[in-house]
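hi! just following up on the protien thing from before. the input was this:
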Amino acid sequence: MRPQATSKIAAALAALALALPAAAAAQARADTSLFRPLELAAPNEFRSASGAPGPRYWQQRADHSIAAALDTATHVVRGTETIRYRNNSPETLRFVWLQVDQNLYRPGSKGSFQNPSDSRWGARDFAGGVTFSYVRAGGRTVQPHVDDTMMRLDLPRPLAPGESVELELGWSFPVPEHGSDRMGRKGELYEIAQWFPRMAVFDDVSGWNTDPYLGQGEFYREYGDYDVAITVPAGFVVAATGVLQNPGEVLTAAQRERLARAAGTDEQVSIITADEAGTAAARPRSTGTQTWRFRAENVHDFAWAASPRFRWDSETWDGVRCHSFYEPEAENWTTAADMTCFSIKEFSTRWFRYPYPQATSVAGPVGGMEYPMFVMVGSTGTEQSVFSTIAHEQGHEWFPMIVSSNERRYAWMDEGFNTFIDHWTGSLRYPAETVQYTKPQVRGAYESLRDRGGDPVVMTPPDRILRTSLGVGAYYKPALALHMLRDEVVGPAAFDAAFREYVRRWAYKHPTPADFFRTMHDVTGRDLSWFWRGWLYTAEPLDQAVTNVTSTAVAAEQGGGFNATVELASLTPVAMPVRLRLVLGNGETRDVELPESIWYGGMTYSYVTRVPAAVTGVLIDPANTLPDRSRSNNAWGTSRTK
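and the predicted 3d structure came back as:
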């Protein structure tokens, strides 16, 4: 090779070397498309690129033994607790964090400034909070460092990987009348939840999760087994998470016989009848106290309720005992045990088999709240509204009780998923009626709140979403997004397979949004970055429009007819497939489905097709299935009257 040619090649290579980084940088700067891949945390040995737990996934474990007593004269709960905490992480821990949610009701708590005292989530000017009588770790007394609803315990010696430590606590707290609509009391009825110190989650994503409890985002906890003893006045009946361990001590012979009968039938059986409720016939004895013992396995929380006036009904579906507890005046609760079984069966059949031995629904002052194997629902309302709320709260057994995401940061992975799966229960039980949480109801609720200015970014933590917008951001918008993904984008079969796989992969584990996104990609085979970005990461609504239509005659020798061009636009950075109805001059109509890929080149698109007659009208979304912000720009020509 001649020297001159060599120098030219060298110069060209040098120029190319300089140009490549500049071109790559320019391309990176230019990649602002809605369809660019989501920027997710890199997969690793703990969380795989497929969205499944990695080969070295780990999580901590916390087993609890609790003995608690309810003093109905002072409305105080006193308890002692032992937590056996196992460090399954690869890190040595020198301290641990616990959640002490009852401190929300201390005067001056962070949450008291977040919610007005007379609001649904407010503390109602109640002077509460936890008082500790002792705190020990590894058998040694330790000084707790309390920061509002979080508490750090410095361990006497470091907790190495694979080791366990016992934490022992004695505590008490006064029961508020209205505990942020999460717990409380009314008359002699007590509903007790978020009541004992519990381990915060230490995970591979954030380390210690120490977001305070402010009134929303209750759940992110470690799984374990619970042995709980609850002492109440002898005239009281207790309903709780878990399975009753000592029925011979706290139930009459007639009640035990009825429970045995209910265990073998899907017909509702009265364990405590209307005539017996509140009478001596309902209790083995009526003086002194009695202790009810419960055991729950592989759960991350425990709640209970007590009243001397409970009615109690029970029936069984596929080995799961369904219970309802309600006071006599709750007149639309007489079929609530059957409502509970109906809901459990539907969610099990469609998504993932209910894994626990029992499911309980309790009527009381709390409007609607969920805990493992146990939900609280308002005692008033129509039969249909009682069912809708029971079904919704029981649906939470799947999200977040079985699949335990971080609700304090991602409420949509709890409330949104649950609102989505609620769709089928109401439609099945009341097929001829409009029922809460069905897809049309969810869409209507979203559009109504959106049009009043409440359309937040779904990925926002719940305590940072305005209360007026929380229903949209945590419930309706993500639920509607899942419906649209299922029905309009990937199809029911592909969506259902992916959603079931997500539940299967992450049952009893702690998934993140990235794990969900990757699982849906993995199973459907579709990169849905554009969908998540539009519906979960922005506060923009959908707004598809037809901007112009032209029809150009085609010469007979070229086949005749018309070349029609339909100019389309997506006026916000939210994309969806487009369903078009073309109205032709000869009276014919044609329906066309255009995939989301039409927006790859930008948010305008020209659809060209050959038709036998000129296009006289165009309508986007003729079935009116999408929550389009302005349907006035969805029509052109004569289609406006169609």
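Residues 2-6 have pLDDT under 50 and may be disordered.
The longest strand covers residues 61-71.
cheers
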